[in-house]
Amino acid sequence: MTSIPLRLGGLSWRIRPRGVVVTTAGLALLALLMALSMRMGDIELTVAQVLAATFDPADPAHFVIMELRLPRALTGALVGAALALSGAIIQSIARNPLASPEILGVTNGASVLVVAGVVASGSAYGGTSGLLTSLGVPALALLGGLIGAVIVYGLAWRRGLDGYRLVLVGIGVAAVFTNVKFWLLTVGDVNDTGRAMVWISGSLHGRGWEHVQPVAVALAVLVPLALTGTRSLNALRFGDDTVTALGLRMNRARAAMILAAVLLAAVATASAGPIAFVALAAPQIALRLTRSAQPPLLSSAAVGAVLITAADLLARTLFAPVELPVGVVTAVLGAPYLIHLIWRARK
Amino acid sequence: MSATAVAPRLHGIRHRRITVLAVLAAAVLAGVVLSITIGSRSVAPLDAWHALTAPGDTESDIIIRSLRVPRTALGVLSGLALGVAGALMQGHTRNPLADPGLLGVTQGAAFAMVASIMWLGASSLLAYIWFGLAGALVASVGVFALGMVGGRGGPTPVTLALAGTAVSAFLYALTSALVLLDEQAMDVFRFWQAGSIAARGPDVVWQVLPFIAAGLVLAMINAPGLNALSLGEDVARSLGQHIALTRTVGVAAVTLLSGAAVAACGALAFVGLIVPHLARALSGTDHRWLIPYSGLLGAALVLLADVVGRVVAPPGELEVGVVLALIGAPFFVALVRRRKPVRL
After folding, report:
1. A249 pLDDT exceeds 80?
2. Could you give the residue ranges of the DSSP H alpha helices within B120-156?
3. Which CATH superfamily is domain B74-338 in?
4. pLDDT at A135 over 70
5. C-alpha of A287 from chain center
6. Of the partner residues A171, A183, A346, the one whose CB lies closest to the CB of residue B97
7. Could you give the C-alpha distances from B303 to A41, A108, A139, B83, B132, in angstroms and in order?
8. Domain count within chain A
9. From the candidates A183, A323, A337, which should be mutated to test the interface with B, based on the most B CB atoms within 10 A?
């Protein structure tokens, strides 16, 4: 028996035990990693000290836990979950394991505007870096991500949406964005290029509660929406013609799912930069762990959260006091694991 | 329909295909002429011809022989290589998102180049290119080996694509960590990343030529087998195809072609992503025609983009990769919108 039906009013879902096990194990691992993140850093704390500091505002470590480590770790976990969920939705819609929020124009759109902002305000053009306050970059990223998605969606829409055409238009728009980004990196001062590269790689350095809130709100609203759309996602696997024949209102369901994926990726990118690999790898890892036919949404989110939390823990402790961009460590950590899963699947 | 009715129609298709091939070849030729004559110093076509056939010592003769000709040759070679490699890659993975860098070639080259700057003190363009080529070959062979053990009886398209993406992401992460630590490497890397065929001497052309020539031959050998494979592995097997062999030849061709092109000209792999989709609109799915169409179209586009990049922002130049994306991609999107795409 590989699945148990769950009925709620007129709706029903299939609950797969393997999916439940993977998600639960993922959340347990996440809790462990979060606890470790609270303990480790410039000041090493014991579990008792962490607990004491958390609830006692007078404790000297209270600031370290509540204002530095906790918001940073939460941002990482939430961003990981949001990007993985976004990737799982897009891979299901495009029916393509190589698809990621990049083909919806979100991450590349954000990158172009942020790099333009960093280069234009940088030393090569006489501007001041102070122009880019901590608020400036996330706002540029969110704006760029949404503009990118509107461009891709608008160009791909033609009397309905075709998954294959969406992918092709996404490739074309991504080529423009990526090369504009490369060009911007060559015209700036090499120091500004360096700063822009850190953001492009994805970084959680100095993330606070103001970065946690938007991602938490987006997840709270969009996860239920995504889960109700799972049924239409499952049907999409059989191809557009079959779905139409089954009588599903495909365009509406698909548009809602794409909107959810775009918003999740845009908000996550605004908080931590384009951590590109999570959105691609987490759904594929979850798919192999749960042995399901297409990327499972909740398990993917759990895997994404674990991946980024673990990566950030390593990123800030491995070569302390030098900190690596979390996106770099995520790929170094996630890629071998995905390769291992592919390797293991051989018969 | 009787056999006598089919024959003239097939003949008509063949006729049209040869015409398209001739038109594409003429476009490449026109691109070569433009590329040799246009630049910050324009040369009349007749003078250019004179410089090539009876070289003298005038300034324009020297410009043409030492700068324009190698640059044009590299444009043709890299365009051919990336177009053909892209068509092969998309055919083998049956994935429209596959680019010739998918096997780790681009990121392998980038990592080897950056590592050679930081640890081996490489500082000349020629050295970067040798290290880049070596890195591309190693990464590609590694990915193929991984895909080989990952699938049953030879690498399946999905395992190849995923293994390639994972390895590329891994190498890209290492590369970005390295360039963040070293400003000189960052400076080389950011220009390499934008892609260029300028300021590479004749020695670079001779260096990549054998790899690309060998890759083109392998690609044409691979075309009929790839046609059979695109019917599905079971059908291909029952048609007598040796699947693992066909895949190995295809991957070897992609590695040689894109490894050489990327090492010499930078991260231009998306040429190979977009061009085959354009070529498929002209050729349909028959790889015996798709492969030459993609190659010629790639060469024509690279030359055209390079010429535009020379004149569009005087006194400087725009990198060919940037221009190519700004011209080619909107055209591509318009094409995708206008007609139903030819599916893989």
Report:
1. no
2. 125-150
3. ABC transporter involved in vitamin B12 uptake, BtuC (1.10.3470.10)
4. no
5. 17
6. A171
7. 53, 26, 39, 13, 23
8. 1
9. A183
